[in-house]
TrEMBL record:
<keyword id="KW-0968">Cytoplasmic vesicle</keyword>
<feature type="domain" description="AP complex mu/sigma subunit">
    <location>
        <begin position="4"/>
        <end position="124"/>
    </location>
</feature>
<comment type="function">
    <text>The coatomer is a cytosolic protein complex that binds to dilysine motifs and reversibly associates with Golgi non-clathrin-coated vesicles, which further mediate biosynthetic protein transport from the ER, via the Golgi up to the trans Golgi network. Coatomer complex is required for budding from Golgi membranes, and is essential for the retrograde Golgi-to-ER transport of dilysine-tagged proteins.</text>
</comment>
<feature type="compositionally biased region" description="Basic and acidic residues">
    <location>
        <begin position="148"/>
        <end position="169"/>
    </location>
</feature>
<protein>
    <recommendedName>
        <fullName>Coatomer subunit delta</fullName>
    </recommendedName>
</protein>
<dbReference type="Pfam" id="PF01217">
    <property type="entry name" value="Clat_adaptor_s"/>
</dbReference>
<comment type="similarity">
    <text>Belongs to the adaptor complexes medium subunit family. Delta-COP subfamily.</text>
</comment>
<keyword id="KW-0963">Cytoplasm</keyword>
<keyword id="KW-0653">Protein transport</keyword>
<dbReference type="InterPro" id="IPR022775">
    <property type="entry name" value="AP_mu_sigma_su"/>
</dbReference>
<dbReference type="GO" id="GO:0051645">
    <property type="term" value="P:Golgi localization"/>
</dbReference>
<keyword id="KW-0813">Transport</keyword>
<dbReference type="GO" id="GO:0030126">
    <property type="term" value="C:COPI vesicle coat"/>
</dbReference>
<dbReference type="GO" id="GO:0006888">
    <property type="term" value="P:endoplasmic reticulum to Golgi vesicle-mediated transport"/>
</dbReference>
<dbReference type="GO" id="GO:0015031">
    <property type="term" value="P:protein transport"/>
</dbReference>
<dbReference type="GO" id="GO:0006890">
    <property type="term" value="P:retrograde vesicle-mediated transport, Golgi to endoplasmic reticulum"/>
</dbReference>
<keyword id="KW-0333">Golgi apparatus</keyword>
């Protein structure tokens, strides 16, 4: 998770089954466990280990079981922390929130099913760009379909409008013809 100094999650991704309230509770408890002034990169409770890295006004926090490999956890945390500047111009709450989905996609490349993938920053960038390319292709196809649907809609609207005009013209002509024939009949009756 990327969280504030107060423990509020800005972006969070769990890789094992865990409820949202449990995650929020763990993150809320995190700042209270911090020993100010000490240069540790992790803190433990009875049930979990928090591996963390300060990032200006925020923390990058990895919550693991106590029996996980601390060295792997630190390496994973380092990679998570290096991903953030790839997508965010500043390490600020609003910037992290704005790019949360990009970050989550990148996080998914680092950890799968609770285990760290053997990837580096360049590979993560490539994988997320590939996803991004697929998304761009999908959007382009969808936009083309939308344009075609709008053009078809305009064509149908013009067609309906023309049909309405034709119907009005025919109605006015038939009324005119009926009126004229009725007038001609009257003239025939009065002109013997």
């Amino acid at each position: 998770a990327v969280c504030t100094k107060a423990g509020k999650a800005i972006v969070s991704r769990q890789f094992v089954e865990m409820t949202r309230t449990r995650i929020e509770g763990l993150l809320a408890a995190f700042p209270k466990l911090m020993n100010t002034g000490k240069q540790h990169t992790f803190v433990e409770t009875e049930s979990v280990r928090y591996v963390y890295q300060p990032m200006e006004k925020l923390y990058m926090v990895l919550i693991t079981t106590k029996n996980s490999n601390i060295l792997e956890d630190l390496e994973t945390l380092r990679l998570f922390s290096r991903v953030i500047p790839e997508y965010c111009r500043a390490l600020e709450e609003n910037e992290i929130s704005e790019h949360c989905f990009d970050l989550i996609f990148a996080f998914d490349e680092i950890v799968a099913l609770g285990y760290r993938e053997n990837v580096n920053l360049a590979q993560i960038r490539t994988f997320t760009e590939m996803d991004s390319h697929e998304e761009k292709v999908f959007r382009a196809v969808r936009e083309t379909q939308e344009r075609e649907a709008k053009a078809e809609m305009r064509r149908k609207a013009k067609e309906l409008q023309q049909a309405r005009r034709d119907a009005e013209r025919q109605a006015s002509q038939s009324v005119g013809i009926t009126g004229m024939s009725h007038h001609a009949q009257l003239l025939l009756y009065f002109n013997p």
